[in-house]
Specification:
Blueprint (H helix, E strand, L loop, with lengths): L3 E4 L25 E5 L8 E6 L4 E7 L2 E6 L4 E6 L4 E5 L4 E5 L6 E6 L8 E2 L2 H9 L4
Antiparallel strand pairs: 1-7, 2-9, 3-8, 3-10, 4-7, 4-9, 5-6, 5-8
The structure holds thymidine-5'-diphosphate (TYD).
Amino acid sequence: MHTIKYTFQPHGDERGQLIALEEFNDIPFQIKRVYYMYDTRADVVRGNHAHKNLQQILVCIHGSCKIRLDNGKEKKVVALERPYEGLYVANNMWREMYDFSEDAVLLVFASEVYDESDYIRDYNEFLDFVASGGL
Ligand code: TYD
């Protein structure tokens, strides 16, 4: 499965690190929404859904977590462990976020505002959706 893991460029100096992310430049879409998760218990699995249209970039800006991606044919696990790593998650991709460290903060840049009708929350429905070409 082709997934894109970005390594963002920190602007580091003796004061510490700074990362700047611009839409259409570092982030390959217009950023319409930003949200973040924290205080996520270690035994919790979040996500468990796919999106018909939404694209996202996930950045674990503190701590670590794992992302399981599934395009209906292949599955892949990507660990996010550094604040300069970004994972691009395309539409039509089932995702599960898990194995959160106690201090994890998972920041998400999204290409659309929140829209419940864009979610596929049933895995079999997702498989049917991608098998029919995701239309
Ligand atoms: P949920 O979709 O369950 O999060 P996850 O993808 O991590 O499993 O969202 C949790 C709650 O937050 C749910 O009530 C919907 C709400 N929510 C928003 O209002 N706006 C958003 O942008 C997101 C992602 C969730």
